[in-house]
Amino acid sequence: MAACAGCLWLASHAERLAIQALAAVVFSFVNNTVFSLLHEATHGVLHPVRWVNDTLGRFAAAFFPTSFTMQRAFHLNHHRHNRTHLEQFDYFRPGDNRFLKRAQWYSILTGLYWLFVPVGAVVFALVPGLLHRLRGTGTRYGEQTGADAYLGRLEAASGGAIRAEVLLAACVQAGLVVALDVSAMGWGLCYAAFAVNWSALQYADHAWSPLHVRDGAWDLRVAAPVRWLFLNYHYHRAHHRHPHVPWLYLGRYVDPEVARPSFLRIWLSMWRGPRPLPAAMEE
């Protein structure tokens, strides 16, 4: 978090654009470390004491920025529906709206996907009924996008907790801006770089993987320093098979018999867009 703050300051105060850009790139990696800690907290393995785990998770969420309660509801829902028909954004299924499918796909690759998280958290905090109307219950839109399944999870979440966490995130962000004299350009550069970096990995570790709830992910190959900064997040198949194993030990659960594609190869292939669902994969 201190490194994130330093990058925000440097991106706002450096005189040369090259240094500002470098600060933004570094921010995109170290803020992914913070996100990985948030990810650990959603599974309750960041700290053995529940209230400490959740408190740390809430402060990590403030750097995203989002609500910890909302993130936990969405992420645990992802584990329930991984690679089911609700999460096959890489394939055109029969009856899919192809324009909507491509819009989702390229919003992931360009980082626009990240924007929906903080904006959605604020909207839910201020107008909770609006997200309920966006679920698209019983519609092709609601099923194809996963909106019905994901937004439906918020009905069981604590609205009060989400509003308090959104307020905390707003205060943390405002505090950083005021204390470090962060400029709009500096903040925008850092979070734009983070959005692209974070968003790309969120589906690169699933794209073209088996349509299986636990095995539908990759243990991606990536340079060791990058994997360390992401706290072994690239060992995503191991994580889906053993979601309660802390990041420190995930390497022990990587199956050497299963192919490990490189992150770069998967990411580059994603730019070609979604593919028709192979007949052999149709339920």
Short overview:
The protein has 283 residues and is an all-alpha fold. The chain contains 14 helices and two strands; from the N terminus they run ααααβααααααααααβ. It has a two-stranded parallel ribbon with strand order 1-2.
Protein traits:
single chain, 283 residues, mainly alpha, two-stranded parallel sheet, 14 helices
Account of the 3D structure:
The chain has a two-stranded parallel ribbon with strand order 1-2. The chain contains 14 helices and 2 strands. The longest helix has 26 residues. 36% of the residues are buried. The mean pLDDT is 92. α1 runs antiparallel to α2, α1 packs across α11 and α2 packs across α11. 62% of the residues lie in helices and 1% in strands. The protein has 283 residues and is an all-alpha fold. It is globular, with a radius of gyration of 19 Å. It has one domain.
Please describe the topology of this protein:
Blueprint: H1 2-13, H2 17-42, H3 50-62, H4 68-81, E1 91-92, H5 98-110, H6 112-126, H7 128-133, H8 140-145, H9 147-153, H10 159-180, H11 184-204, H12 224-229, H13 236-241, H14 263-270, E2 275-276
Parallel strand pairs: 1-2
Helix pairs in contact: 1-2, 1-11, 2-3, 2-4, 2-11, 3-10, 4-9, 6-10, 6-11
InterPro entries: FA_desaturase_dom
Domain Fatty acid desaturase: 22-254
Organism: Myxococcus xanthus (strain DK1622)
